[in-house]
């Protein structure tokens, strides 16, 4: 099969084989990918989508093999983004072979996908992973029998240890160009369904599809509306035929046709699993169950989670501040003693400061966070947090999966925006991303504690947080009410606990950090250059005057705060340091009244995400949404700040 | 015994019976505010109609037929409560009292029509799940938007997954929900007939965790409320 016909898409080029890795979530696909590929790997975004696929190259006995790690999916219907990405890639014809990673501990659920992959017209090799974990669970699988029943090679492996991975690649090389042509008897559905599949498939075979007609027929009966629309353009009789045939199915089985097909597939998969696996039930409660009894306990579960979260926040805040300062000191010590003239000042204040500020965020806050996130992800604790936090998250109209990014936002908003990827629907993801940018990150905490906390006392600082939380909850509820669609509850697998593999953790963290270094760092430097340019051209003073109706009249603040708000776009914590410089005194209370301090911090907390966050927002939600969120937050901050000034001025 | 009275007995028994344990006649008497001798008399009559099994000194248990009848009443009662509070804007207490009276006069058909016009509410104003209809439909969404094509009723006597006690096992009977949710649940293995075990429920009506086909799944409460099961001793 030629894979370079599609124009525009990156093609295999000089590769001997293109392999697509497909499987359920948590089956060890990434572990396999990391075992096979060297450091030469790219994590790319699909155009217009936020779901990642990773690509890497592997040299195997002199052959160059391209590996494409597709997002974890449970089915090939075109519904969630993961499924769409996987399906579109498979249907694009770029892959020569599908390597289907199957979790031996949950054979039935995994084979549900395998059966769908087998009919797609691309040769399939099954990597039976986690055979060691299965044995511990008392499950042994006869892979030769499985091979016969599926009609595809099955290789036993333990991906994290590298056992069996090379045999898997050998098998992939050997099946290239040999797609399975007929459906084995073991893969047939019930007679009522088969009859209708055949009818539909014969109609489809006239339409000259790129995919096998039988595969398309099954998908159509499963209610794949996207495929139906595509095929309706080829043959207008198709939608009617689908409608009639699925209604026939439905009336025989008294269930919707999609459910009938899924049930039939599960029953055939159940037959296969029953034939190939031997289960020796373990006596008593397994350790895993006991562990879950604690981690998901209505009291201890929450206590443990709180402890874990607090320690993560502490670690990130401490290392973040420490690393950021160390980097800053290193740069400042290298600063040339005399900096004069336009270019040196621009390059230093704009370029170098921008560079070390962004490196500080990247190495101080993001790297430790991504490391911790990978550990949590690989160990399987993340879904448990989502389970515990599902109910509390309903307060802002979101569900459990949003809790992780929302909590991490207290450390830094940038990884929080990226972390929102784990939420499935676009709508919920956008709401969660928006809300996470309003959560006071450690930089904003520094401003709040440094000004209000120091000069007005902790009660006022806490009240700032309370105002913020109130705004977040109100905004969450409002967005939920007015944005189209409704939040769907969680349907999420809770995988067994596993020991994280250090190598995998490091590489995942690096893979996540890299896009930030590549896109956000240059943008931050460009931003600081622009602001420095404004300063050099004395445009800042003019801006200050231009902003004074807002800052002085509406917010009741001293005019010099205008500069701080602009500088705060770069780094919010810098506002405290710069405040003294702009105000011309270290004695803050002599230039600002308590009301002004409070309003200043309130506006600082809300008004705009910092430039690193805006960049992350742009990458995650698209630039239009990023602009809308930024403008909305400026408006919100100005509104709330003005109201606070008018309410507090008579009181204080 | 008038129809209304026997229906009140069935409903009270449904509320009082926990895990299939027999309900004491004294409990029933207290609940309905009647004297114990008349309870015994009423229960004996219901027993003759095949609605309950009565064993003197042990208590009363609902039969399948009785439980089905009681659940149909509960459904109408809760739908009426939603209608009275949401549409007619009555307060909860008077809506409850009114629903207690109207439920006996409402036919199953009118109840289903009410459900459709209220766009398939999931729970009554107090947050208790509304028992499902027995219409044969694809999903609530289809029923609301397209109406019911066949007036056929299924014979399922299912209860929501969320009403199971912890560690209980049951078999999935059907899922009432949007098409997307139904498909997603199916591909995760929750197809009709599948044995499931409820592992735990998070506090405050949070999500539940179930074991299905050897995997553990977390399901949001809203979704789990729409999964109907038949309790049984299936092994998972």
Question: What is the N-to-C succession of helices and strands of chain B?
Answer: HHHEEHHHHEEHEEEHE
Domain module count of chain A:
4
Order of strands in the sheet with the most strands of chain B?
3-8-4-5-6-7
**N-to-C span of chain A:** 77 Å
Architecture (CATH level 2) name of one domain in chain B:
Orthogonal Bundle
CATH topology of one domain in chain B, what is it called? Diphtheria Toxin Repressor, domain 2
What proportion strand of chain A?
5-15%
Query: What integer is the average pLDDT of chain A?
Result: 84
Chain pair forming the biggest interface: A-B, 43 and 43 residues
What can be said about the biggest beta sheet of chain B?
6 strands, antiparallel
* Morphology of chain B: globular
SS content category of chain A: alpha/beta
Q: Shape of chain A from CA axes? A: elongated
- In order across it, which strands form the biggest sheet of chain A? 2-3-4-1-5-6-8
Number of helices of chain A: 28
Main beta-sheet strand count, sense and barrel state of chain A = 7 strands, mixed
Spans where pLDDT lies below 50 across 5 or more residues of chain B: 149-153
CATH class of one domain in chain B: Mainly Alpha
In terms of topology, how is this protein built?
The complex is a heterodimer of chains A (652) and B (236).
Chain A: E1 17-23, H1 29-36, E2 41-45, E3 52-60, E4 63-69, H2 81-91, E5 97-103, H3 107-118, E6 124-129, H4 131-136, E7 139-141, H5 143-150, E8 154-156, H6 165-175, H7 191-205, H8 213-221, H9 225-234, H10 238-253, H11 257-276, E9 277-279, H12 287-295, H13 300-333, H14 342-379, H15 382-393, H16 403-408, H17 413-419, H18 426-438, H19 442-456, H20 458-482, E10 491-493, H21 502-536, H22 539-554, H23 561-568, H24 574-583, H25 588-591, H26 594-606, H27 611-621, H28 623-648
Parallel strand pairs in A: 1-4, 1-5, 5-6, 6-8
Antiparallel strand pairs in A: 2-3, 3-4, 7-9
Helix pairs in contact in A: 3-11, 5-11, 7-8, 7-10, 13-14, 14-21, 17-18, 17-27, 18-20, 19-20, 19-26, 20-26, 21-27, 23-24, 26-28, 27-28
Chain B: H1 3-16, H2 25-32, H3 36-48, E1 52-55, E2 59-62, H4 64-87, H5 92-102, H6 108-117, H7 140-146, E3 159-160, E4 169-175, H8 179-187, E5 195-201, E6 208-212, E7 215-219, H9 221-224, E8 227-231
Antiparallel strand pairs in B: 1-2, 3-8, 4-5, 4-8, 5-6, 6-7
Helix pairs in contact in B: 1-2, 1-4, 2-3, 4-5, 4-6
């Amino acid at each position: 099969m030629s894979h370079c016909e599609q124009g525009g898409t990156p093609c295999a080029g000089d590769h001997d084989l293109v392999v697509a890795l497909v499987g359920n979530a948590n089956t060890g696909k990434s572990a396999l990918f990391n075992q096979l590929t060297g450091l030469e790997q790219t994590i790319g975004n699909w155009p217009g989508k936020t779901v990642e696929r990773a690509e890497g190259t592997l040299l195997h006995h002199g052959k160059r093999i391209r590996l494409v790690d597709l997002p974890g999916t449970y089915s090939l219907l075109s519904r969630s983004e993961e499924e769409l990405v996987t399906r579109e890639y498979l249907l694009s014809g770029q892959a020569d072979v599908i390597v289907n990673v199957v979790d031996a501990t949950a054979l039935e659920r995994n084979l549900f996908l395998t059966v769908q992959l087998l009919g797609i017209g691309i040769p399939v090799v099954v990597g039976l992973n986690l055979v060691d974990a299965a044995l511990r669970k008392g499950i042994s699988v006869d892979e030769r029998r499985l091979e016969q029943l599926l009609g595809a090679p099955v290789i036993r492996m333990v991906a994290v240890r590298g056992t069996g991975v090379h045999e898997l690649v050998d098998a992939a090389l050997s099946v290239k160009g040999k797609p399975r042509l007929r459906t084995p008897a073991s893969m047939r559905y019930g007679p009522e369904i088969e009859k209708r599949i055949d009818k539909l498939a014969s109609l489809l075979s006239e339409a000259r599809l790129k995919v096998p007609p039988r595969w398309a027929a099954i998908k159509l009966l499963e209610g794949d509306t996207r495929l139906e629309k595509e095929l309706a353009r080829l043959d207008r009789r198709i939608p009617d035929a689908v409608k009639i045939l699925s209604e026939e199915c439905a009336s025989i089985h008294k269930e919707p046709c999609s459910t009938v097909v899924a049930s039939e597939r599960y029953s055939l998969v159940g037959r296969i699993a029953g034939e190939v696996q031997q289960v020796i039930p373990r006596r008593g409660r397994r350790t895993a169950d006991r562990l879950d009894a604690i981690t998901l306990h209505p009291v201890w579960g929450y206590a443990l989670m709180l402890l874990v979260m607090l320690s993560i926040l502490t670690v990130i805040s401490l290392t973040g501040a420490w690393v950021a300062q160390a980097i800053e000191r290193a740069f400042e010590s290298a600063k040339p003693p005399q900096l004069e003239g336009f270019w040196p000042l621009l390059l230093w204040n704009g370029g170098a400061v921008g560079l070390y500020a962004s490196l500080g965020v990247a190495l101080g806050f993001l790297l430790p966070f991504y490391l911790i996130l990978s550990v949590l992800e690989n160990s399987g604790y993340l879904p448990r947090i989502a389970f515990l936090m599902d109910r509390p998250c309903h307060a802002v109209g979101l569900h459990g999966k949003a809790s992780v990014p929302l909590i991490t936002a207290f450390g830094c908003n940038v990884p929080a925006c990226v972390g929102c990827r784990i939420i499935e629907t676009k709508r919920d993801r956008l709401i969660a991303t928006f809300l996470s940018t309003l959560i006071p990150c450690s930089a904003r905490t520094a401003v709040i504690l440094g000004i209000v906390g120091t000069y007005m006392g902790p009660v006022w600082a806490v009240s700032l947080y309370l105002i913020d939380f109130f705004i977040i909850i109100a905004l969450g509820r409002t967005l939920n009410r007015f944005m189209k669609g409704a939040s769907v509850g969680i349907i999420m697998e809770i995988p067994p606990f596993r020991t994280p593999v250090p190598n995998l953790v490091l590489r995942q963290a690096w893979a996540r950090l890299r896009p930030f270094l590549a896109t956000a760092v240059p943008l931050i430097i460009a931003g600081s250059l622009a602001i420095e340019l404004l300063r050099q051209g004395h445009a800042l003073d003019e801006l200050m005057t231009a902003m004074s109706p807002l800052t002085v009249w509406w917010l009741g603040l001293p005019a010099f705060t205008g500069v701080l708000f602009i500088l705060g776009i770069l780094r919010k914590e810098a506002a405290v340091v710069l405040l003294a410089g702009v105000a011309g005194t270290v004695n803050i209370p002599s230039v600002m009244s308590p009301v002004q301090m409070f309003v200043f911090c309130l506006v600082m907390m809300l008004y705009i995400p910092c430039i690193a966050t805006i960049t992350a927002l742009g990458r995650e939600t698209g630039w239009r949404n990023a602009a809308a969120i930024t403008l909305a937050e400026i408006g919100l901050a100005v509104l709330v700040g003005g109201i606070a000034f008018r309410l507090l001025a008579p009181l204080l | 015994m008038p129809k209304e009275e026997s229906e009140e007995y069935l409903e009270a028994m449904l509320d009082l019976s926990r895990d299939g344990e027999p309900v004491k006649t004294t409990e029933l008497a207290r609940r309905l505010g009647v004297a114990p001798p008349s309870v015994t008399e009423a229960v004996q009559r219901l027993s003759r109609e095949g609605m309950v099994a009565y064993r003197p000194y042990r208590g009363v248990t609902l039969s399948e037929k009785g439980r089905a009848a009681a659940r149909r009443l509960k459904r109408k009662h809760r739908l009426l409560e939603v209608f009275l509070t949401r549409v007619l804007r009555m307060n909860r207490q008077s809506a409850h009292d009114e629903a207690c009276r109207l439920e006996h006069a409402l036919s199953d058909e009118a109840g289903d029509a009410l459900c459709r016009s209220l766009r398939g509410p999931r729970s009554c104003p107090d947050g208790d799940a509304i028992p499902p209809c027995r219409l044969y439909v694809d999903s609530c969404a289809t029923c609301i938007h397209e109406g019911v094509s066949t007036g056929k009723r299924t014979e399922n006597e299912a209860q929501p997954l969320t009403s199971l006690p912890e560690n209980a096992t049951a078999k999935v009977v059907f899922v009432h929900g949007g098409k997307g949710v139904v498909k997603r649940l199916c591909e995760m293995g929750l197809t009709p007939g599948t044995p499931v075990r409820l592992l735990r429920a998070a506090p405050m009506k949070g999500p539940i965790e179930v074991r299905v086909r050897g995997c553990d799944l977390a399901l949001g409460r809203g979704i789990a409320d729409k999964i109907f099961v038949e309790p049984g001793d299936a092994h998972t």
